[in-house]
Design a protein that fits this description.
single chain, 1% strand, 2 strands
Length: 478
């Protein structure tokens, strides 16, 4: 019997009556809600109906399988291929399926620690403290935003719901990485997650290039850093994993070429689509071979020199016309608000109401994750977040160093996660692609953001696997 099945059985046995009563009440409320909507509108919300019918089935299957690993696969599948399903919140933001699955996973993990282990059971890792402190900083910032809110703020009706949802997204994404790093203990699970990502990315890029009618499946999940992670994983496997057949490695390089063509050749104006992607390829190439890196840089410079005029018009001029240079003004406004709330900022999603009150003519998001986090959690939360980023990068560098020369899946994953996470750090300057802002990507941006945190957790999980194997191979001292 797995840990999760044991937890579930103990919890059900000790709280059976309470769960039964809560289930009856929740079911009655759901039926009453759908009935009321049907009477009022003469229409039935089939999304809610499907969700109500599917939720207990999904939960039962999950607990029957009894493994967190399947839950991580479910998050990836939901984020990449089930974008058509979401639940309303009463605002423009919707709760996506990947967020629901991730919430169930984290709740099950907390239940395990509370009911079975009765302690905070975490593997020793440099990310433990910054993750937990960042979660705490978000809770404090949420309360802080009420205690020190400017009295003249224009608070609209839906904002409290959005702010609470933003709090959930801000804490759930780092916790997802921490959970994966603690629950995946074998490389085979990381291998399956990697190939699941590449398979999804192949389907999406073929859909885009062939104009297939599958847009509703991946519309949100394929945004943000999705293409960067697919490309990084495929490129690293093609370069490093010598166990793969040459034909398969050639196909992986075709996937890389397809995404480069799609995001750089066809959609050059979208900097977030190709700048992080090229950054990931640069890091992976540098880890593999300095000679290959030199050749790639020379080829890139020749390409830029030959196409300089068109690149300048399509990248620099086009982004200026799209308002790219206006971001400096947005950042200046943002810093002005932060200067009045320096310690814990304006709370999750909080700077939106400050912009609408004091800068209604230019009340936009910063389009920059660093400024978003600074505004939402203040200097304290921002410093912890930077600490967390540095901790991930250090682990990634250690992985690459410890696995150098192996030329297998693990070395490929080490290179891919280091390259992908470096790309994420770059991408945060261009948009809210790592922690989505509630009034830009909305909380539905959890779909594409989940991939960065899944593979950040995979980076740490790989490090645990390497260390455990090294300890087993080390003979005991006399």
């Amino acid at each position: 019997m797995s840990e999760l099945q044991s937890i579930t059985r103990q919890f059900l046995n000790s709280h059976r009556q309470t769960i039964l009563r809560a289930g009856v009440v929740a079911g009655a409320m759901a039926v009453a809600l759908m009935t009321g909507r049907f009477i009022a509108n003469r229409t039935l919300d089939f999304t809610m109906l499907i969700g109500a019918l599917a939720a207990p089935i999904v939960i039962l299957v999950f607990f029957r399988l009894g493994r967190f690993e399947y839950g991580f696969f479910a998050v990836a599948i939901a984020a990449g291929l089930f974008n058509f399903f979401s639940l309303p919140t009463g605002t423009d933001s919707r709760i996506v399926l990947s967020l629901l699955v991730a919430g169930v996973l984290v709740a099950a993990w907390l239940l395990e620690m509370l009911v079975v282990k009765r302690r905070l059971a975490l593997k020793p890792s440099p990310i433990n403290r910054p993750v937990l402190l960042f979660v705490a900083a978000n809770f404090i910032a949420y309360v802080w935003s009420f205690a020190f809110r400017d009295p003249v703020l224009n608070i609209w009706r839906s904002f409290p719901v959005v702010q609470l949802a933003a709090l959930g997204v801000n804490i759930l994404l780092p916790l997802l990485a921490l959970l994966l790093s603690n629950k995946i203990n074998e490389s085979k699970w990381l291998r399956w997650l990697t190939w699941l990502m590449i398979g999804t990315g192949t389907f999406v890029v073929l859909s885009l290039l062939l104009n297939l009618p599958t847009y509703a499946l991946w519309t949100r999940g394929a945004s943000g850093l999705f293409a960067t992670w697919v490309t990084a994983l495929a490129f690293a496997l093609a370069l490093f994993d010598k166990s793969l057949k040459p034909r398969l490695r050639a196909l992986l390089l075709l996937v890389v070429a397809a995404w480069v063509f799609r995001n750089f050749i066809q959609s050059r104006i979208w900097l977030s689509g190709w700048v992080p992607l090229l950054a990931a390829l640069f890091v992976i190439t540098m880890i593999h071979s300095r000679r290959l890196l030199t050749v790639s840089i020379v080829a890139g410079l020749i390409f830029v020199a030959v196409n300089f005029d068109s690149l300048y018009q399509e990248v620099v001029v086009a982004n200026q016309e799209e308002g790219g240079e206006q971001r400096f003004g947005l950042w200046e406004i943002n810093l002005g608000h932060v200067s009045h709330h320096p310690f814990f900022g304006m709370g999750p999603a909080g700077y939106a109401v400050y912009n609408m009150t004091y800068n209604p003519q230019d009340a936009r998001s910063t389009h920059n994750n660093y400024f978003d986090i600074l505004a939402q959690t203040g200097v304290v939360g921002f410093a912890i977040f930077v600490w967390l980023l540095i901790s991930f990068m250090r682990i990634g560098r250690r992985n690459a160093r410890m696995l150098r020369g192996r030329r297998d899946f693990e070395e490929a994953l080490a290179a891919a996660t280091l390259g992908g996470f470096t790309a994420a750090i770059v991408a945060m300057m261009l948009g809210d692609w790592v922690i989505p802002f509630a009034y830009n990507s909305t909380i539905a941006g959890f779909d594409h953001a989940a991939f960065t945190w899944l593979f950040a957790g995979s980076m740490v999980s790989l490090h645990h696997i390497i260390r455990a194997r090294a300890q087993q191979d080390t003979p005991p001292s006399a």
